[in-house]
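INFO  loader      accepted 1 record
INFO  loader      residues=282
INFO  predictor   begin
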Amino acid sequence: MRTVIFGAKGQLGRDLTIVFGEAGEVYGYDLPELDVADAAAVAAAIQRVRPDTVLNAAAFTDVEGAEDHEGEAFRVNETGAGAVAAAAAANGAPVVYYSTDYVFGGTKSTPYVPDDNVAPIGVYARSKAAGEAATRTANPNHFIVRTAWLYGPGGNNFVEKILQLAATRSELKCVADEVGSPTHTWDLAQATLALCTSDAYGTFHAVNAGACSRFEFAQATLELVGAKTTLIPCASSEFPTKATRPLYSVLSTQKLEEAAHYRMRPWLEALRHYVSRRGTTQ
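INFO  predictor   done
INFO  writer      dumping tokens
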């Protein structure tokens, strides 16, 4: 398999490079060498390689920053998505676009399925929903993969933020009323490979199994590294933010399991794997 990865330097891109590298040739692109919103540059990169698969892991992911930089968020997440999908289609290759649980409003109390109506709240969420639409329009052979609470090597993710804070504080407050599906980039990369070896195009959810609150996620993280910091549960209202987060965004992976015959492991097992990798992959 010959694969082009956009956003190859990011936390997901790094693990995609490893996983797809074991399956064949990988060609990675990222800033500053290539901007996914530059349609001509994207088309030239894909035409040079003529890949079997194109993975678009490039994204504007600063949820708070998007509220102040709406144009840039849409330029990367929508315009860039359309450019990558169109260039892949022009070369006869399927495209993978990574989206987010944030496209849902968080009002359900049971796991969201891929066919649920999106109701994005905030600029980041709306830009990712727009990227989904742009991908669908530009390339019929698409895999839109929604994930959640992503963490991986070298990323400025929730796990790393908790560990950094715990290193200097004896007590930490953590939100207990946001519930979701933590996902390790390694597992998402493996799920992506399973999808790409099928022709089950469409929209999928790929998250580690189970669900937890932010508080439970942080608590498990601290326990795994043996940190002595005391964690105190609190409401999200105690930490007001520019962007509204969904309170419930658990995603169902049933469609992924049926189409790709791949079941993602429990989130705690994946977190344990990540903690064991820290220091060797950061």
